[in-house]
Automatic annotation (TrEMBL):
Family: Belongs to the CdaR family.
Organism in which the protein naturally occurs: Shouchella lehensis
Protein name: PucR family transcriptional regulator
InterPro entries in alphabetical order: CdaR-like_regulators, CdaR_GGDEF, PucR_C-HTH_dom, PucR_C-HTH_sf
Pfam (any one): HTH_30
Amino acid sequence: MTDAYKLFLTKTYTHLDAFVESLGKLLACPITIENKHHHLLAYSEHGEGTDSARISTIIGRKVPDNLIHRFWKDGVMTALNQSAEPLLIAGIEEFGLGKRVALSIRDGSNGVIGYIWISETTRTLTVFEQQWLKKVAVKVSTYFSMYDREQLAPTKEEKLWKVMTNTYSPTDLPASLMDQTNEKCMLMIDLHRKTEHLMKVEQLLQPLAPLYMFDGRYFIALVAHASIADPLKTIQTAMPSNLSIACGNPDRSLEGMAKSYEQAKEMLSLKNRFKEELNSLLFYYQAGAMRYVGPYEEKAYVSSKHPAIEQLKRYDQQNQTNLLKTLDEYLKNDSHLVTTAKALHIHTNSLQYRIKRITEITNIRLKDPNERTGLYLDLRGEH
């Protein structure tokens, strides 16, 4: 370790601002220190290469909410909270963020009390400097005693992100959320970056949602109720029809909310793709076989789709028939003749003739559940 780096660690500073200013000069990089709730505590002079994300943080005395949301989505905050190692962060151009090295600041019990952010807009830190910063993080923790750590309480957004990433502490959350007698799930509503429906959505969800946020496009909420399905169905009915709403699977434990959040995201994606089949559904488990379309398509890419699909496509083109659509409706309606005939606006006798013709052309075995399910999934990939 060079003398300058050794000296920095042994020197005493009168306050955190002096500490940060000295560190910024030593590394020749802009430095920012914030508490665990992302409120700004100290920063070094800008120097050259300061980016707009840092300027916004300094002006607002807090990291912008949209950037905090992005850090949680990208796993940055989870990584910092789970490890004392330096984390290399790529620039995010849309937020005006240049490259960063970040570390968590911890107290004597290894709890996170803040973060150090080093901007690499003018130079890249060496591996030695990255590892040396772990000693800096230990030293800077002693200056946090000058600040009331709990003066600025965590926001609802921060609490919710910690629940969604399963990094929460029970002391961070309302005691009611730890109660396992209520069902809980994560809910997402795609507002398409429009805020005109936000007030109505908040009014509908507030009685059920102790934690919620709007991240610029999605309204995300942790909802809880003794029996969650009925009140959420009522809310879904009251929602504007152009909004898409989805929920992860219910769970009585808070630990299940990280998985429920991933399921809610996937359900939104499925509802966007399979609008006709899933529009009226709410929970991830209700998507049924649609949940497996993605993994199935990856495997089908290698093994190819059922040849019956191409056979019927060719037959329909040559004979101006609708046998492929007939097969699709028949499988969607669980092989129910009357329901399928109504959907196609034909007589059941006509449907029976079409089904017979389909099996003659393709040799498919519609009584075989494995082949029937495979065909159903292959046809979903045609949408």
